[in-house]
Write a structure and sequence with these properties.
Layout lengths: L5 E7 L2 E9 L3 E5 L13 H6 L3 E5 L21 H14 L5 E6 L1 H12 L4 E7 L4 H6 L3 H6 L2 H5 L5 H8 L1 H4 L8 H4 L1 H11 L2 H14 L2 H11 L8 E6 L4 H5 L2 H6 L5 E6 L5 H4 L1 H12 L1
Parallel strand pairs: 3-4, 3-5, 5-6, 6-7, 7-8
Antiparallel strand pairs: 1-2, 2-4
Length: 290
């Protein structure tokens, strides 16, 4: 897995960041979603490296082997603004002042926040299986609430989710039914298992959701009110066998009011397209980023 890539733990502004990187050429950082780690990109990252990119795959703050800072009442350490600043800091440590950023699921929120807050650093943006946080919350209806009920469960301040998940994380995350070694790949699955078995990681992943419905929404609202938009070219990708189109219609139209330049298309896949459709995904990324 990740042949010819380097795996390190780096200090980024006092927070440990676990990261794997390889290749040469223009830099692109790949940001995973919940509850994955950077190893979800194991079949995509080498293809991008072969296509002529320097590929950087970190564990997001709180996820996998990365640091898990103590939270506060507003969940500020797990805001996408804080995570985005850490992405920029990581790329500085690795010597990249300007780079493309690709994010899937929760990672898509970090990716677009990086582009909004650091337009001088982000050359291109790819968002996968996501729309801006405030758009998701404002468009929330009964169908979304029924399908994505875990958003509200994860966000409860009394922390029932930690107790439920940590009692049997492998069943909660379907580690031996849907998310099997065969589906994820053996080494990716082993990394996924190590993450979900760690109560500190589970808590930090839930802090991501708590920030999502509070401080992240407020930051989106403030940016929208101020007329801030994503400056760089943007690509929206979505899994056609998932529910993004059913919930929001054409995702490109949702992103259009947030971006100066956006295009997009669906990929025939379930939600975790990096694992289920890696070749088509890598081809789409290479064509856009090249």
């Amino acid at each position: 897995m990740f042949e010819d890539f380097v795996l390190k733990e780096l200090d980024v502004a006092g927070i440990r960041t676990r990261v794997r990187y390889g290749g040469s050429g223009p830099a692109v950082v790949l940001l995973h979603g919940h509850p994955r780690t950077h190893t979800t990109w194991y079949a995509v990252a080498p293809r991008l490296a072969d296509a002529g990119f320097t590929v950087v795959c970190p564990d997001l703050r709180g996820y996998g082997g990365s640091g898990k800072p103590v939270t506060d009442a507003d969940h500020t350490p797990y805001s996408k603004r804080a995570m985005a600043a850490e992405v920029v800091g990581l790329m500085e440590v690795l010597g990249h002042q300007r780079f493309a950023v690709v994010g899937h699921d929760r990672g898509s929120y970090v990716a677009y926040r990086t582009a909004l807050d650091h337009p001088d650093r982000v050359a291109k943006l790819v968002v996968m299986d996501g729309v801006p946080v405030v758009e998701a919350l404002e468009r929330c209806g009964s169908e979304f609430a029924a399908a994505w009920w875990h958003w509200w469960f994860f966000a409860q301040s009394a922390k029932p989710a930690e107790r439920v998940i940590c009692a049997d994380p492998e069943t909660w995350y379907e580690a031996w039914t849907k998310n099997t070694p065969q589906a994820l790949g053996p080494e990716n699955h082993a990394d996924f298992l190590a993450a979900i078995r760690n109560p500190a990681t589970v808590h930090a992943m839930l802090e991501d959701y708590r920030a999502g419905i509070g401080i992240d929404r407020h930051n989106d609202e403030a940016d929208r009110a101020a007329g801030r938009r994503i400056e760089c070219p943007t690509l929206a990708l979505w899994s056609t066998d998932d529910d993004l189109e059913r919930l929001y219609g054409d995702p490109v139209e949702v992103w259009r009011s947030w971006c100066h330049q956006v295009e997009g298309h669906g990929i025939k896949s379930g939600h975790h397209m990096a694992e289920q459709a890696p070749e088509e995904l890598a081809n789409s990324l290479s064509a856009f980023l090249g």
